[in-house]
Amino acid sequence: MGQYFTNEKLPSNVKSTNCVVRGHKFVFLTDNGVFSKDGLDFGSRLLLESIPLDEVGVKVLDMGCGYGVFGIVINKLTNSHVDMVDVNLRALHLASRNVKENNCSNINIFESNCYSNVTDKYDTIITNPPIRAGKNIVYEILMNAKRYLTPSGNLFLVIRKEQGAKSLISDLKEEYNVEILEKKKGFFILKCTI
């Protein structure tokens, strides 16, 4: 089985999943080789339910978007403009289909290895960092986010206690003001500001 942050040629098995987030219904096409292919995972749901929507702003980056859950949900709930990026081409294809499935507008999807193709600044960057890609990639995403945030921008993320949340929070505090928005079932929802 390949990892969701690579472009290995796995047999495709597209399926449709449904979920309700903050009272809104969504449908997502998923496939082999993408994160959380069986539907919205607990950590991502907790992040989406914990973000203060009035702090999202008008321009959002969904970093490591997978099949598009964060970008699509935030777009529908806030009408913000969303850029969604990932290194996984299958994920990007699914994200594009899911934008249509959920009748979204003002969403731009493009390939980017971390921030390699990102040029804008954002009011919000949201991510469920790809822990299995390794610490270097995770830290590249999280520590470099500040370069792509507006002065009052927010980085929102989810991390599990067993995946090194305590040490990550300590390291993040060297770069950001860090607030724990929620803790539940071993998951930490963090808000980081410059």
Describe this structure in words.
With 194 residues, the protein is of the alpha/beta class. It has a single domain (41-193), classed as 3-Layer(aba) Sandwich (Rossmann fold). Helix content is 26%, strand content 32%. It contains five helices and nine strands, in the order ββαβαβαββαβαββ. It has helices spanning 42-50, 69-78, 89-101, 135-144, 165-172; strands at residues 15-21, 24-30, 59-63, 81-86, 107-111, 122-127, 149-160, 177-184, 187-193. The chain starts with 14 loop residues before the first strand and ends with a strand.
Summarize the structure.
The chain is an alpha/beta fold. The chain is 26% helix and 32% strand.
Which key features would you list for this structure?
194 residues; 9 strands; seven-stranded mixed β-sheet; 32% strand; 5 helices; two-stranded antiparallel sheet; alpha/beta; globular; Rossmann fold
User: What is the number of helical segments per DSSP (H or I, 4+ residues)?
Assistant: 5
Mean pLDDT: 93
Which geometry do the CA atoms define? globular
Quaternary status:
single chain
Rg over alpha carbons: 15 Å
Relative strand content: 25-35%
Per DSSP E runs of 2 or more residues, the count of β-strands stands at: 9
CATH homologous superfamily annotation: Vaccinia Virus protein VP39
> What share of the residues lie within helices?
25-40%
Return the structural class.
alpha/beta
Main sheet overview: 7 strands, mixed
Q: What distance separates the N and C termini?
A: 38 Å
The CATH architecture name reads 3-Layer(aba) Sandwich
Side-by-side strand order of the widest sheet: 5-4-3-6-7-9-8
**CATH topology heading:** Rossmann fold
**Strand and helix order:** EEHEHEHEEHEHEE
Count of domains? 1
Uncertain stretches of 5 or more adjacent residues: none
CATH class categorisation: Alpha Beta
